[in-house]
TrEMBL record:
<feature type="transmembrane region" description="Helical">
    <location>
        <begin position="97"/>
        <end position="117"/>
    </location>
</feature>
<keyword id="KW-0812">Transmembrane</keyword>
<keyword id="KW-0472">Membrane</keyword>
<feature type="transmembrane region" description="Helical">
    <location>
        <begin position="42"/>
        <end position="61"/>
    </location>
</feature>
<feature type="transmembrane region" description="Helical">
    <location>
        <begin position="6"/>
        <end position="30"/>
    </location>
</feature>
<feature type="transmembrane region" description="Helical">
    <location>
        <begin position="276"/>
        <end position="297"/>
    </location>
</feature>
<feature type="transmembrane region" description="Helical">
    <location>
        <begin position="188"/>
        <end position="209"/>
    </location>
</feature>
<feature type="transmembrane region" description="Helical">
    <location>
        <begin position="221"/>
        <end position="245"/>
    </location>
</feature>
<dbReference type="Pfam" id="PF10060">
    <property type="entry name" value="DUF2298"/>
</dbReference>
<protein>
    <submittedName>
        <fullName>Uncharacterized protein</fullName>
    </submittedName>
</protein>
<feature type="transmembrane region" description="Helical">
    <location>
        <begin position="385"/>
        <end position="404"/>
    </location>
</feature>
<feature type="transmembrane region" description="Helical">
    <location>
        <begin position="345"/>
        <end position="365"/>
    </location>
</feature>
<feature type="transmembrane region" description="Helical">
    <location>
        <begin position="318"/>
        <end position="339"/>
    </location>
</feature>
<keyword id="KW-1133">Transmembrane helix</keyword>
<dbReference type="InterPro" id="IPR018746">
    <property type="entry name" value="DUF2298"/>
</dbReference>
<feature type="transmembrane region" description="Helical">
    <location>
        <begin position="67"/>
        <end position="85"/>
    </location>
</feature>
Amino acid sequence: MSDIQSAFQYIIIIELLGLSVFPLTAYIFSSFPDKGYAFSKILGLLLSGYSMWILSATHITAFSRSASFAILLLIIVIIWTVALIKKSLTAFPLNTLILIAIEEVMFIGIYAGWTYLRGFSPDINGLEKFMDYGFMLSILRTKYFPPLDHFLSTETINYYYFGHYLASFITNLAKVPAQFGYHLQMSFLMALTAIQSFSLSTAFVTKILEGSKNRMLLKQIGAGLLSASFVTIFGNLHALIYIPIEGISYWYPDATRFIEYTIHEFPIYSFIVNDLHGHVSSIPLVLLVIGLLFTLFTTNKTPELNDTSLIKKFKNDFSTKLYPTVLILLSLTIGALYATNAWDFAIYLLLSGLVLWTKNTLSIINANQKILPSFFNITVLTKTAIESIALLVCSMLFFLPFWAQFHPISQGIGIVPLGSHSPLWQLGVLWGIQVSLSVSY
């Protein structure tokens, strides 16, 4: 099979995965200017891939191409049938169609362009590619999860392999050679990172400028392109500072190691070195979590309810199907983060709790109340605790087979000795742009 044919078959499967859940995506992200189109690909992959994984992990159905296609077909039938019955997909405004077209052009362009560039260095060799590629090969040979460890005979992989599994899932569906699937997955992740960042910023700017319609489309596109560039391409200030000093002797990996005893990689570095690590595979999942949290935060605010009416607040949340649907998908995505890149599980579970806490606080505030005391209102704290615990428990239940067989490699959190903290100027080089932009708002 030629590399061009492989790239074409791979993207066809990706587009099919996206279209399979678009009615669901449009419902969840109805407040987004693009109706969440940019999130449909990762959501379709997550729902189809997880369904196949859980059936295999519980020994109900073996992991195979035919079973994967059957699951995908079932998801298409269910979601599109519900959409047609409820007539939830209506004609989109012109601006929405323009944004969707821009995102699709961006996606195909980045996918094709990065795949073309990778063709000049297609070796799966060096750094940790051998391990990542080995995980994919082992998964592709697996019938029932967890897969066998290609380093330790007769043992199963004791690693965060779900990102490698999703790459193998698409590779299997597309019926492309594993060596092509490895590279194509990296191109897919890069393109997906760009359009999801684009979509998030269009939603943010629309919310911030709510009520203003003056050149809104141009503002959305501008914010989206800036976001896609900053998240996908821009790293930190290291290169801008050191290239003029070191010239042609500048070594780009230094930008990810210049603070001693730390590794602070950023997306474009990972896409260049081409290691299919968990922290790369988790980027689209992380952006999906942020999108779901934004949807949760901007809906169902009820400041008119009394601050002691906990039951009424839950009834109000469950008065539409959006709230439980988002919470379920959020639990699934956070659960997937643990099996993909465990640190993201802790980080985005905490972020989810903070967002829920803030949302619940805003729901009780009226003109006569102050914000800070409202954060510690008993109803707010109780509701936040219930929701956060539910998220934690459900995220673990979704991936219970993984939790049952996995033995954590890390041994807790190390404490940096007093006086060994990072110098402020180094933190400025690492986070200067991000902090400056945040403070400007």
